[in-house]
Structures are given as structure tokens and as C-alpha cells.
Write a structure and sequence with these properties.
Length: 159
């Protein structure tokens, strides 16, 4: 468990093409982690402790249930009409969704120089992208700062 999580939470990994269908297996079995750790030893120990007691069951069940979800949502129109922000890691091995704007027509896409764990790898840039996007939404909605919490809260997030 510790090796898998240590290998998973990395930044500045050299670009590499994962073996098809083997990304998680390779992460779990790699003796030497690529890149730099995102988490401190203490943070990693906390994650290891949590996952050793609960496992990955909840996450795995989502994938096991994909067919059922597909059938349950068959009559739902899969279009998100609200404004949305999608932040990608430019070095994520999970590819960007090429048809995202077909299903989320009002999406703004931002890419950050990181891998999959965007908020852990680049917390300041992630917070800044979210606040900038919220301010744009706020400016176009005329809500007088209700969306962004202008003032103390947004200023504290940026410092």
C-alpha cells in the first residue's frame, strides 16, 4: 500500500508512455518512484493508514458499477448547461476528454504544468485558476461578489 501511494503522488515525472492497461499495476510494483514526492512522509503515512483500514473498495465499486450506471442514466440528457471549469494537468497520463465541450458547452479549460494530482502538485496555481474563473463568472452574473466571496476569503486563499 505504501509503495503504491508513494509512487502515485509524484510531481515533475519525466514524460513516459504507460504500458497499455498497466498504469496502476506499474505504479503498485515500481521499486523506484519517478519524479519528486508531493506528500511529506507524515502526509503519506496518514494516507497509508486510512487506506489500510478502508482499502480502495469505494473507488473500485464505481468502476464495477459502470454498466448499471449507464442503464440507470439512459434517459438523462448528458449535457451540463451551467458554466464549468475543467482543470487538467498537462503532464497527466490520463488524456484530456476530446469531446468535453459537446457535453459541457460552457466549459472553460485550463491546463497546469503538473500530472494527475493537480491540487496537491500545484495548490497555489489551482486555487488561482478557480478564483480567476469565479471572478469572471461573478463579473458576468452581476451578483456583487456572492460567488467569489470577494474580500477576506478570496484574499486569504491567494496568500
Amino acid at each position: 500500500m505504501a509503495r503504491f501511494l508513494r509512487n502515485l503522488y509524484r510531481r515533475n515525472e519525466p514524460p513516459h508512455e504507460p504500458r497499455r492497461g498497466m498504469l496502476m499495476v506499474d505504479l503498485a510494483s515500481a521499486e523506484t518512484a519517478l519524479g519528486e514526492p508531493v506528500l511529506s512522509d507524515e502526509e503519506l503515512a496518514g494516507l497509508v493508514c486510512a487506506f489500510e483500514s478502508t482499502g480502495f473498495t469505494g473507488s473500485i465499486h464505481w468502476y464495477r458499477n459502470l454498466d448499471r450506471n449507464w442503464h440507470l442514466l439512459a434517459d438523462v440528457v448528458p449535457i451540463v448547461r451551467q458554466p464549468a471549469l475543467m482543470i487538467y494537468g498537462d503532464r497527466d497520463v490520463i488524456p484530456r476528454a476530446p469531446r468535453l465541450s459537446e457535453f459541457v458547452p460552457r466549459v472553460e479549460v485550463v491546463g497546469l504544468d503538473c500530472g494527475h494530482s493537480i491540487q496537491q502538485e500545484n495548490p497555489q496555481e489551482t486555487g488561482g485558476a478557480i478564483l480567476t474563473w469565479l471572478e469572471k463568472q461573478d463579473a458576468t452574473s452581476g451578483s456583487n461578489g456572492l460567488l467569489t466571496g470577494r474580500g477576506v476569503a478570496s484574499d486569504q486563499m491567494m496568500s
